[in-house]
Write a structure and sequence with these properties.
Blueprint: H1 8-35, H2 51-54, E1 58-64, H3 70-84, E2 90-96, H4 100-109, E3 114-116, H5 119-129, E4 132-137, E5 145-146, E6 148-153, E7 168-171, H6 181-186, E8 199-202, H7 206-214, E9 220-224, H8 225-230, E10 236-241, E11 245-246, E12 250-252, H9 258-269, H10 276-282, E13 293-295, H11 302-315
Parallel strand pairs: 1-2, 1-3, 7-8, 7-9
Antiparallel strand pairs: 3-12, 4-12, 4-13, 5-11, 6-9, 6-10
Helix pairs in contact: 5-11
């Protein structure tokens, strides 16, 4: 009987190469799955025990800007819809837009009754269409603020804005605060203007920015702080945080149905996350909304409005 022996070194190399290729394929597959805006959503599951009571209710659609891939949005926002459906009049359903602007257009046309917008695009939509904010989320300290952060991989030599000269920077949507904070607010402070500015590129979702940084396509990126925290144990490091900015508002049209607005306000404001039952309920919500809501006023966004004015001056 003949025996064919494969050299140990060759076998070892083959196994390592196969493992590497498998990892690459899985990574790409997962990335495409989570960032594909066309991915169908799983069937909507109503809040526990509410199927029969929801059947005859008036359907009210709630929009969400495309800051995250659709499956991520669905996972974090559908439980909020389920909770809203514990009210006694309407049936709230998600309706996602493919872009930030599309969600604004849905709101203006009346395709959605309310929408979770970003702070930056809210200011623009308020100025152009008169939409109004009604609620904003609280953070873990009970404050109505959030932050954007500059991230790199853990071993990067980048330690501050000045180190970005000549680097490649990934940014989320141009309609988001995170997509404008560095270029408009921070780059000029460090002389990174004109030809000195880093090369930057915008991506559709915050998770896409993280992916570009992890794979080395970009040297740094900017995302919402809550997204960055999810990747701190995956070789991501936070370099710099923005000043506190007002939380992403829940917005309605200027002529919104008072009954819808009241139910949104009443149901979301009655949530007290200090109680164990409420904390268990919000555990499945998007992290941005796990600490409850507070009333919002347009004047809360005057700081973002100043950043928008900077952009206008630069484009003239």
């Amino acid at each position: 009987m003949l025996h064919y022996c494969v050299p140990t070194r060759l076998l070892y190399t083959t196994v390592i190469l196969a493992a590497f290729l498998l990892t690459a394929v899985v990574t790409v597959a997962v990335y495409r799955t989570t960032t594909d805006i066309g991915s169908p959503f799983p069937p909507v599951t109503a809040f526990s025990g509410q199927d029969s009571s929801l059947a005859g209710r008036q359907v009210v659609s709630i929009g969400v800007v495309s800051r995250y891939p659709p499956p991520v949005i669905y996972q974090g926002y559908q439980p909020i819809m389920d909770y809203l459906n514990t009210g006694n009049r309407f049936r709230f359903e998600l309706r996602l837009g493919r872009t930030y602007q599309e969600t604004v257009e849905q709101l203006v046309r009346g395709d959605v009754a309310a929408a979770f917008l970003g702070t930056y695009i809210y200011v623009r939509a308020h100025e152009r269409f008169g939409v109004r904010c009604i609620l904003m989320p609280l953070n873990e300290n009970g404050e109505p603020f959030s932050r954007s952060v500059l991230i790199t991989v853990a071993g990067s030599p980048i330690r501050g804005i000045a180190d970005l000269r000549g680097k490649r920077v990934a940014l989320p949507s141009q309609d988001s605060f995170s997509g404008n904070w560095l270029p408009l607010s921070e780059f000029p402070k460090f002389g990174l203007v004109g030809e000195m500015r880093p090369v930057f590129r915008h991506f559709s979702h915050h998770q896409s920015v993280v992916y570009q940084v992890l794979r080395g396509t970009c040297d740094a990126g900017v995302v919402k702080e809550r997204v960055a925290r999810e990747y701190l144990d995956r070789n991501i490091r936070i370099v710099l945080s923005s000043d506190p900015i007002p939380g992403s508002p829940l917005v309605v049209r200027r002529d919104a149905d008072t009954a819808v607005v009241n139910q949104l306000r009443n149901v979301l404001l009655r949530l007290d996350v200090q109680h164990p039952e409420a904390r268990a309920l919000v555990a499945q919500w998007d992290q941005e909304f796990q600490y409850g809501f507070t009333e919002a006023s347009d004047t809360d966004y005057d700081g973002i409005r100043r950043l928008l004015h900077v952009q206008k001056r630069q484009t003239r």
